[in-house]
Write a structure and sequence with these properties.
The complex is a heterodimer of chains A (466) and B (544). Chain A is mainly β. Chain A is 3% helix and 47% strand.
Chain lengths: 466, 544
C-alpha cells in the first residue's frame, strides 16, 4: 500500500503527524491525482512570423487531488480524525510524504494551507457512516527527495592546482529538474575584518572541464614594457609564473599582453564569461588602470577601464564580461540541432600608470568564470563568532552558524543568482574565494572545504538511484 | 529560452537584507535616457499589520541578472503602499531610480550671468549721478550707464555706483567679473573702477583706471592675475571723482559698461571648491555637470563620474529663483542636444555611478520587428524654421529666426514652410545661445521622430558588448537598427537616427509577466500619463 502521511521534516525517519493510509484512513485510487504541475509560458507572437516564441517558462504550483476514505467506529472518533486532518490542512505550510507501494524512496510535497472539499457520507454497519473526503491540496511545483550531501571537497585557491583549482565537480545529481545548492564552509579564510567577497558560479552543460577557465599570464605574448618573471610562490603556476609591466617606455594605456584563448575550437568554449585578473601593483599610491579588450584581431570589444585599488597586495579585479564567440552565435548548424564549435577569442590585457612614476603591475593570470548560467557574489560581513557560513540557495540567503545554530553578527549581502545543479549532467561549481581587493589576504596556496548538499526535485516519482 | 527568467530581487534596509524573488507577485522596471534607472514596481505578500524589516521608505531595491551577477536596475523604495482585499495582504512596492536625486534640492545658481538688468543703483551712489541701462553706442545688446548731468556738481570722492548682488543672493562667491567699458570723456580726475566686497562689508578696489574715451576692459577672477579676493560675492562698478569738486560742463560726463560676464564659483565633481582657472567669460556644459555633482548631487559618485567634455561655450546660465539639478541638466541638453546623462548602479559606498556622455554615433543593437512594432511618427515633427524668443542682457525681449533644409518639405509643390516657436522666456539672454537653441531644435526635427514602440522578447545582438543580450539587458541611450522596416544600404552606416530604420532608444520597460522589453524609440511614446507628467514638470521658475 502507498504511504501518504503528513510529516514534520524531509528526513528518512520523520515524525508522522497524521498517516492517511493507516488507522481509519485510506487513500482511494479513484479520485486521487498527483499529476505533475503545469508549465506556464510567456509567448510572443505576431502575424509577422509563423508560430510563437517562448521567452520564459516556469512550473506552476501543483494541485494534489486526494480522496480519502474514513472509517470510524463511533461518531466521536470520526470527528476526531476529521479534526486531525483539518489541523494538518490548516497549517500555513506542511509536508506530505508519498511513497508508492514498492518504491525504495519517498518524495515529499511542500504543501500550502488548503481546505477540504466534498465530504460524502455513506451509511454502513458502524455507528459512524463511512465518509469519502476530497481534498485539493495546493503544493509547490516539485516533490522533494531526501537531502543529498556531496562528499566534502577541498577547493584550492590556486586555479592551476592539480585538482579542484577554484572549482569542484558535482556529478550524479538526483532529481528530475534543476535544484538549488546549499554550500557550507568554515569562516576561516573566508571572513575577515574587511568584508571579503567571494564568488560562486556554475557551468551545467557539455563538458565543463573543457571550458576556458584559466589563462596564465606567462603563456600570453608579452609586449610593451612587459616581461615574464621568475617563479614567485605567491603566484600560481610553475617556472616563470607571472609577468611584470614596468611602464618604463610607455606609461599610457596600451596592450601589455595578448593571446588567442583558448587554442583550437570546441563546443564547450561557447558562453559568456566574467573575466578576473589576479594582479599586484608595486606602489600603493600610484594610480594604475587596467582593461580587457577582446574579439577578433581586427574587431575588438573594449571593456571598461578598471582602477586598481590602493595597496600592494595581490588580489582579483573584475575586468567585465566577454563572450565566446563574439557577436552573433547560431549555436547549431541551421535547424539540424548539430552544435557548432567555437574558436578561441583574441584577448588583450591593457594597462596604464595614470598617476605616479614608480608603480609596476604584476599579472598572475586571467580567470574566465562562466557568467551565462548562475553566478553570485557574496559579501560575507564579519560574521564574528560564527564557525561556518552557509550559502543557502533554497532560502536565497547567506547566514552564519556556530555549532549548527544560526548566529548572524552581520548580515551577509548577496548579488546575483544562487548556484543550482542539474541532474543527468556534470555540474562544475566555481568558487573564487576573494574577488574584492583590500579584504583578507588572498594566498594562492589556501584551500577551503566546501560541504555541498541539495534536495532533489521531482515532478512525480523518485527512482531508486536517481 | 524556456526557463524561468534569471532575475533576482533584493531589498536592503538598515534592519534587513533579503532576496525576495520567490515572494514576488510581479515585477517591472523602467530605464530612460536621459536619466538612467527610473522606476520599478513589484508586489509581494506581507502582513499589512506588520512593518516588514525589508520594506521601509528609502530602502534599497536591487534587481540582478542571476546569470552573471550584473545589476540590471537599482533604486530606493518610494512608496510601499499596502492593501488587503480579495488578493490577500499585498505590499505594492514602487521604487525610484537614482535619477530622482536630481529633484531632491532646489537652490539658486549663478553659473554665468550677462544680465546688466541685475545691476542696481548702489546706496553709495551720489545724488548727482544717474545709474541705469540704456542703448549703447558700442553693442546692440545695451549697456549700463553711470553719468552726471550737465550742471551737476560732482564732489571730491563722490561716485556713481551700480551694485551686482545675484551671486551673493545665490549663496555663491564671485569667480570672475568681466566687462567692457567706454567713457564719454577723458580725465585723470575721474576713474572707472571695479570693486568687490564680501556680503555688506567694505569694498576692495580690484581695478581702477582713468576714464577715457578709448574705453577698455575690466576683468578680474578668483585666483587670477587680477585677483578677486576669495569669499567676495558682490561687486560694484563706479565712476568716481578723485579730483577736486567740479561742475559738469557738458553732457559727456558718463561711462557705460557692456558685454558683462559674471561667473559664480563652482565645484569640481568630487566636491572640492574650484579656486582658480576662471579664465573665460563662458562656461561649458560639462563644467556645469561637474559643479552639480560636487554641489548638489552628493548621492552620486562625483569623483569617479564619467563626464565627456563639451565644447559649446554657454554665454548665459543663471537661476536666481532656484532650480533643481534635473532642470539644469535639461537645459544643458537643450543647448547641447547631442548629450545625455545617466545615474546607474551604486558602489560600495552607496553612491551611484554617473555618466554624462554624447549620444553614440554607432549602432549598438540589431533587432527585428517580429515581436511587435508600432510607430506614431508623423510629419508634424518636421520643421525647417524656428523662431526663438529670449531676453537680452538689458531685459528686453528679442527673437531670432533660424532655418534648415528639410528635403521632404521642399519636395512638395509648393514647398512647405513649417516654423516652430521656442519661448526661452527668461532662459537665455544672449543671441548666440538663442541661435544655438534654435539650431539644436531644428537638428532634432530634421527627421520625423519615431515616438513608437518596439517589443523585444528574444535575444538580440549587442555590438558594443560583442554578444547576444536578453531583453532585460537592453539599455536606453544607444542606437538600434531595426530590420523589417524600409531597408536601405545607408542604414548600415548610420551615425544617428534616420527616422527609418535606425532609432535612438529613449526608454526601456521590462515586465516579467510577459518576459519582454518595450523600447520607446527616438522619444518617449505619447500617453495620457506622460502628458500629465509633462504638465506637472513645467517649471514655475525660469532660467535667466
Amino acid at each position: 500500500m502507498d504511504i501518504v502521511e503528513f510529516v514534520d521534516s524531509i528526513a528518512a525517519s520523520p515524525t508522522v503527524r497524521l498517516s492517511l493510509t493507516s488507522g481509519p484512513w485510506r487513500v482511494l485510487h479513484a479520485g486521487t491525482d498527483l499529476s505533475p504541475p503545469a508549465l506556464r509560458r510567456a509567448s510572443a507572437s505576431t502575424l509577422m512570423r509563423d508560430g510563437a516564441f517562448y521567452p520564459a517558462a516556469a512550473y506552476d504550483d501543483r494541485i494534489l487531488k486526494l480522496r480519502f476514505g474514513l472509517s470510524a467506529s463511533t461518531a466521536d472518533s470520526q470527528a476526531t480524525s476529521l479534526q486531525q486532518l483539518q489541523w494538518e490542512l490548516d497549517r500555513p505550510g506542511n509536508l506530505l510524504r508519498w511513497q508508492p507501494h514498492g518504491a525504495t524512496f519517498p518524495v515529499f510535497f511542500r504543501t500550502i494551507r488548503s481546505a477540504t472539499g466534498t465530504i460524502l457520507g455513506h451509511p454502513g454497519a458502524n455507528q459512524a457512516p463511512y465518509r469519502e473526503i476530497d481534498v485539493e491540496l495546493l503544493a509547490e511545483p516539485f516533490a522533494y527527495g531526501l537531502k543529498q550531501t556531496i562528499s566534502t571537497a577541498t577547493v584550492s585557491n590556486n586555479p592551476a592546482a592539480g585538482s579542484n583549482g577554484c572549482f569542484m565537480d558535482i556529478t550524479g545529481v538526483k532529481g528530475d529538474v534543476e535544484t538549488p545548492l546549499i554550500i557550507r564552509t568554515s569562516t576561516t579564510n573566508i571572513v575577515g575584518s574587511n568584508d571579503n567577497e567571494s564568488l560562486f558560479a556554475v557551468r551545467r552543460r557539455g563538458t565543463p572541464s573543457n571550458a576556458p577557465f584559466l589563462l596564465q599570464a606567462e603563456s600570453m605574448t608579452v609586449s610593451t614594457d612587459t616581461t615574464t618573471q621568475a617563479n614567485d610562490a605567491a603566484f600560481s603556476g610553475a617556472g616563470n609564473n607571472y609577468t611584470r609591466t614596468t611602464f618604463a617606455t610607455q606609461p599610457g594605456l596600451t596592450t601589455r599582453l595578448a593571446t588567442t584563448h583558448p587554442a583550437g575550437a570546441s563546443q564547450d568554449y561557447r558562453g559568456t564569461y566574467r573575466v578576473f585578473a589576479r594582479v599586484r601593483k608595486t606602489v600603493s599610491g600610484d594610480t594604475v588602470n587596467v582593461q580587457l579588450t577582446w574579439g577578433g584581431t581586427l574587431g575588438t570589444v573594449t571593456n571598461d577601464l578598471v582602477t586598481l585599488p590602493a595597496g600592494t597586495t595581490i588580489h582579483h579585479v573584475d575586468l567585465g564580461l566577454m563572450s565566446m564567440p563574439p557577436g552573433p552565435d547560431p549555436v547549431t548548424d541551421g535547424l539540424s540541432g548539430t552544435a557548432l564549435s567555437v574558436t578561441g577569442v583574441h584577448v588583450r590585457f591593457r594597462a596604464e600608470r595614470a598617476v605616479g612614476t614608480g608603480a609596476q603591475v604584476d599579472l598572475d593570470y586571467l580567470l574566465f568564470v562562466p557568467a551565462d548560467d548562475r553566478l553570485c557574489v557574496v559579501k560575507w560581513g564579519t560574521l564574528s563568532g560564527s564557525d561556518s557560513c552557509t550559502v543557502d540557495g533554497t532560502r536565497d540567503m547567506v547566514y552564519g552558524t556556530v555549532s549548527g545554530a544560526v548566529n548572524n553578527v552581520n548580515i551577509a549581502q548577496v548579488e546575483g543568482g544562487f548556484p543550482m545543479v542539474t541532474p543527468n549532467q556534470t555540474n562544475r561549481l566555481y568558487f573564487v574565494r576573494q574577488v574584492r581587493a583590500g579584504a583578507i589576504t588572498d594566498t594562492i596556496g589556501g584551500t577551503n572545504d566546501l560541504d555541498v548538499s541539495y534536495f532533489p526535485r521531482y515532478l512525480y516519482l523518485r527512482p531508486a538511484s536517481t | 529560452m524556456s526557463i524561468p527568467i534569471p532575475l533576482t530581487v533584493r531589498l536592503v534596509t538598515s534592519r534587513q537584507d533579503r532576496h525576495i524573488t520567490r515572494d514576488l507577485i510581479d515585477l517591472s522596471f523602467r530605464t530612460v535616457a536621459p536619466g538612467g534607472y527610473a522606476l520599478a514596481r513589484c508586489a509581494l505578500h506581507r502582513p499589512v499589520a506588520l512593518d516588514p524589516d525589508e520594506i521601509t521608505l528609502f530602502g534599497r531595491v536591487y534587481i540582478y541578472d542571476a546569470r552573471n551577477g550584473a545589476v540590471i536596475w537599482e533604486g530606493r523604495l518610494e512608496d510601499p503602499g499596502r492593501s488587503a482585499g480579495t488578493n490577500g495582504e499585498v505590499f505594492e512596492i514602487s521604487a525610484l531610480g537614482p535619477s530622482a536625486h536630481t529633484r531632491d534640492r532646489t537652490v539658486p545658481l549663478i553659473y554665468v550671468d550677462t544680465r546688466l538688468s541685475e545691476l542696481a543703483t548702489s546706496q553709495s551712489s551720489g545724488r548727482a549721478y544717474d545709474v541705469g541701462t540704456r542703448e549703447s553706442l558700442n553693442v546692440t545688446t545695451g549697456a549700463l550707464g553711470l553719468s552726471a548731468r550737465q550742471g551737476s556738481v560732482v564732489s571730491t570722492l563722490s561716485l556713481a555706483a551700480a551694485v551686482y548682488d545675484a551671486v551673493y543672493d545665490a549663496g555663491q562667491d564671485l569667480a570672475r567679473v568681466s566687462l567692457d567699458w567706454d567713457g564719454g570723456f577723458s580725465s585723470s580726475n575721474t576713474q572707472v573702477e571695479l570693486r568687490t566686497t564680501e556680503d555688506l562689508g567694505g569694498t576692495t578696489t580690484v581695478l581702477s583706471v582713468d576714464v577715457s574715451t578709448t574705453g577698455g576692459t575690466l576683468a578680474a577672477s578668483l585666483g587670477g592675475g587680477t585677483a578677486i579676493t576669495a569669499g567676495h560675492n558682490r561687486f560694484l562698478l563706479t565712476l568716481r571723482r578723485s579730483g577736486a569738486t567740479s561742475t559738469v560742463a557738458d553732457d559727456n560726463y558718463w561711462a557705460e559698461f557692456y558685454n558683462m560676464a559674471v561667473l559664480g564659483t563652482r565645484f569640481a565633481a568630487d566636491g572640492t571648491a574650484i579656486t582658480s582657472g576662471y579664465n573665460s567669460n563662458t562656461i561649458l556644459a560639462s563644467d556645469v555637470v561637474k559643479d552639480l555633482l560636487g554641489r548638489l548631487l552628493t548621492a552620486y559618485d562625483g569623483a569617479n563620474a564619467s563626464i565627456t567634455a563639451t565644447s559649446y561655450a554657454i554665454e548665459q546660465l543663471a537661476y536666481p529663483d532656484g532650480v533643481t539639478a534635473e532642470k539644469v541638466l535639461a537645459d544643458l541638453m537643450e543647448l547641447d542636444q547631442g548629450y545625455l546623462w545617466e545615474a546607474l548602479e551604486s558602489n560600495s559606498a552607496g553612491r551611484h555611478r554617473f555618466v554624462w556622455r554624447a549620444w553614440p554615433t554607432n549602432v549598438r543593437y540589431e533587432a527585428d520587428v517580429v515581436d511587435g512594432y508600432s510607430s506614431v511618427g508623423s510629419g508634424a515633427d518636421l520643421y525647417n524654421a524656428v523662431r526663438v524668443r529670449y531676453r537680452d542682457s538689458t531685459g528686453r525681449i528679442r527673437n531670432v529666426r533660424r532655418t534648415q533644409t528639410v528635403a521632404v518639405l521642399d519636395a512638395t509643390t509648393p514647398s512647405l514652410v513649417r516654423e516652430a516657436f521656442i519661448d526661452l522666456g527668461d532662459e537665455v539672454s544672449t543671441l548666440a545661445n538663442a541661435e544655438r537653441a534654435g539650431d539644436q531644435f531644428l537638428a532634432e526635427h530634421l527627421y520625423a521622430a519615431n515616438a513608437g514602440r518596439l517589443a523585444i522578447a528574444r535575444p538580440i545582438l549587442d555590438i558594443t558588448a560583442g554578444r547576444m543580450v536578453q531583453p532585460w539587458e537592453i539599455r536606453p541611450g544607444y542606437l538600434i537598427r531595426v530590420r523589417g522596416l524600409s531597408p536601405k544600404a545607408a542604414a548600415l552606416n548610420a551615425t544617428g537616427r534616420d527616422g527609418a530604420t535606425t532609432f535612438r532608444i529613449a526608454a526601456v520597460d521590462y515586465s516579467v509577466s510577459d518576459a519582454a522589453a518595450q523600447l520607446e524609440l527616438d522619444s518617449p511614446a505619447p500617453s495620457v500619463a506622460r502628458q500629465i507628467a509633462d504638465l506637472k514638470a513645467r517649471p514655475d521658475t525660469r532660467r535667466r
